[in-house]
Amino acid sequence: MSNNAPPPQVYRSKITAYVVICWLIAALGGLMFGYDIGISGGVTSMDDFLRKFFPSVYQRKLHAKENNYCKYDDQLLQLFTSSLYLAALVASFGASKACSVLGRRPTIGLASLFFILAAIISGVAPNKAILIIGRILFGIGVGFGNESVPLFLSEVAPVQHRGAVNVLFQLFITIGVLAANLVNYGVSSIHPHGWRIALGLAGVPALFLFIGSFVIPETPSSLIERGKESEGKKSLQKIRGVDNVESEFEEIKLACEIANQVKFPLKKLFKRSSMPPLIIGVVIQVFQQFTGINAIMFYAPVLFQTVGFKNDASLLSAVITGIVNVVSTFVSIFVVDRLGRRKLLLQASVQMLICMIAVGAILQVHLTTTGSLDKGLAFVVVVLVCLFVMSFAWSWGPMGWLIPSEIFPIETRTAGYACAVSTNMLCTFIIAQAFLSMLCHMRAFIFFFFAAWILVMGLFVFFLLPETKGVPIDAMTDQVWKKHPVWKKFMGNSDRTCYEMT
Description:
About 75% of the residues lie in helices and about 0% in strands. The chain has helices at about 15-45, 45-55, 55-60, 75-100, 105-125, 130-155, 160-185, 195-200, 205-210, 220-225, 230-240, 245-260, 265-270, 275-290, 295-300, 300-305, 310-340, 340-365, 375-395, 395-405, 415-440, 445-465, 475-480, 490. The chain is built from 24 helices and no strands. By secondary structure, it is an all-alpha fold. The chain has one domain (about 15-490): Growth Hormone, Chain: A (Up-down Bundle). Helix 5 (about 105-125) runs antiparallel to helix 6 (about 130-155), helix 6 (about 130-155) packs across helix 20 and helix 18 runs antiparallel to helix 22. It is a multi-pass membrane protein. This is Major facilitator superfamily (MFS) profile domain-containing protein.
């Protein structure tokens, strides 16, 4: 089912050095998130870390021949990774309120502060309880950052470049993952505190983001929504690089007037007319996680050890997948505003499905509970994982953040995006907490499990996802939802300005 977007409504703007710097500074929020995604798997495979906090897992690892798939199956070890995302789930709703009341820029600053504190606590953690506290603080930082940064990028980007600008968040996530893999590889030989260095370095991108939060502007939408129209207009002129911004300013102003009539955004969010963006925003986040990508990115070193790589070789293989992740994300930056969101998602669904089925088939046939793959097949597994990561990096990775950040009207934008982010964190928590146990009990069939999800994802995109390329962020209701053959049935015939005030 095709659903082509109307031609872009282009407002006057030019790309200045200042606005590019603002995009890059804000995208550092993705670097924080990506670094933590990448660092967890490497740290949990380090012997010094396991000996100190998870000695039973370390002993099991020494006797891996007992069961190749189950040597890392430990709920507390998984909680080390997953606790962050449970905290981020809860924090995303506080971040939504902060975005509405304080603005996008202060919320970004708060995210960086939580991350800095978490990095310090994690790096010096003397016991398991303090270590988990550090992870929870990381989670609060992730919740605040993942709520505020994509909203900021979508609201400051010119409509014709919104996709590419928002993809910067995912690009910096991939750079963070790669940086974490390189750090893990570099500190794995530093005994006994290499893992402390790896965790503590998470504070570096957070520090840069905190400093940068004093450089970037507040978004025009946030300022105007909070009654600061003159400041909002100045901000719009600054980020557009031109003085004549009247048409775009009036569009934002009208959207904010409508938003201010809605006293209870969360209540409005669950009305029938708000269901299309809410369903899309939430389902996209579920699908992004159930591609299996985070199972691979969290535990890439563990996964490669399972198929027969030694510790250093597995970390190096994770670095390779990290490089593929970064390079492939650039594809999305260059083509997302040309090809649109749907084509990238559909193409990637096919590629990812093939890769998952192939990996599962190889492991099912050739990897026993006590053996390992021969070098040739192990290499094939790495190549297939890289092809999987490649397709995710230009599709479901960036689109998972871009689409929910651009589809909600301003009156429900922060609340709607908070639901999307919290769904992402819940699903990430489930995958992070369950993957090693699933690997133990399902073995190679875990890859077929994710393949089934990918098939469902592709069908959902084909039939239900509208194209949002080139549509002004405050015109989505009229230009997208009211024209889609399925979702228009939810919108009714009433004009957008007619809302219940309660």
